[in-house]
């Protein structure tokens, strides 16, 4: 049995996004019911702290639980702030992963000290590359380097204990880039380089082993913790929850899903999924 200092639950609270990245894997065909059920589901998660958790293929004890609010774009959800506050009150460790475009200074000032990890999806700071990826809204607006630097600076001012993370999907558009300078100036605590998954809009548009390896070599002098993730590293090593409150895992181009937490409880729902605790632990 693994003892895990912190178990992360990635809750994709909605599919909707103001961006249109072609490689996005968050395609559930479901409308979000988050605002109706988040209180009950978060209370279920609050009972997992320092408890034995049984999975389909083994067990683990999580000393703490982090709820990572994701999407789509989680800042489209009007109740996100209230959910972060409730998670914090329940002894959970709330975090988010966002494209940053809808995050306001007021939100950081109010909720920043409650947030354990603030994660941002950054594939490029080149306008044309972001346009080709789809990393812009329907008016063509993108998050500039200057705005991202301001966000990082404000978090460090009001919430110095919040870890700042950047996720980069390594894809055709940026595989030959060198982000060392711009990310080096941002100084994220963690930088995750994820190899594009060739499903949905990225079908037939994967990158080669050599391209991915070269990208990582080019960034070997990056400051902070670098976490490379090939497609195989993601297999069964994430615990993901869909907008309906069901755990899910990718199976080819489709998904396997548990029963809804609201019907069977979180402990029973977790028993129906596989989880590779060893691979998960290696990322941290």
TrEMBL record:
Keywords attached to this entry: 4Fe-4S, Antiviral defense, Iron, Iron-sulfur, Metal-binding, S-adenosyl-L-methionine
Gene3D superfamilies xrefs: Aldolase class I
Domain Radical SAM core: 14-164
Xref: Pfam families: Radical_SAM
Presence of keyword DNA-binding: no
Keyword Cytoplasm (UniProt): no
Cofactors: [4Fe-4S] cluster
Record CDD domains: Radical_SAM
UniProt name for this protein: S-adenosylmethionine-dependent nucleotide dehydratase
Source species of the chain: Ruegeria alba
């Amino acid at each position: 049995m693994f003892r895990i200092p912190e178990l992360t639950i990635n809750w994709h609270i909605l599919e909707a996004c103001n961006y249109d990245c072609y490689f996005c894997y968050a395609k559930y065909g479901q409308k979000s019911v988050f605002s109706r059920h988040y209180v009950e589901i978060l209370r279920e998660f609050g009972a997992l702290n320092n408890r034995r958790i049984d999975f389909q293929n083994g067990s683990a004890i999580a000393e703490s639980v982090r709820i990572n609010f994701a999407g789509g774009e989680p800042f489209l959800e009007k109740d996100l702030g209230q959910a972060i506050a409730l998670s914090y009150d329940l002894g959970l460790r709330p975090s988010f992963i966002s494209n940053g475009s809808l995050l306001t200074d007021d939100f950081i000032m109010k909720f920043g000290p409650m947030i354990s990890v603030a994660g941002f999806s950054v594939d490029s700071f080149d306008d044309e590359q972001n346009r080709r990826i789809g990393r812009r809204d329907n008016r063509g607006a993108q998050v500039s380097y200057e705005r991202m630097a301001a966000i990082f600076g404000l978090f460090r001012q009001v919430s110095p204990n919040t870890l700042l993370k950047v996720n980069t999907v390594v894809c055709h558009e940026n595989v030959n880039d060198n982000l060392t300078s711009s990310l080096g100036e941002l100084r994220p605590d963690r930088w995750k380089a994820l190899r594009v998954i060739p499903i949905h809009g990225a079908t037939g548009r994967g990158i080669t082993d050599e391209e991915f390896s070269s990208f990582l070599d080019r960034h070997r002098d990056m400051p902070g913790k670098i976490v490379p993730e090939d497609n195989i590293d993601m297999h069964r090593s994430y615990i993901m929850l869909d907008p309906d409150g069901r755990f899910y895992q990718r199976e080819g181009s489709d998904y396997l899903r548990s029963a809804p937490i609201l019907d069977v409880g979180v402990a029973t729902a977790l028993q129906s999924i596989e989880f590779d605790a060893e691979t998960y632990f290696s990322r941290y």
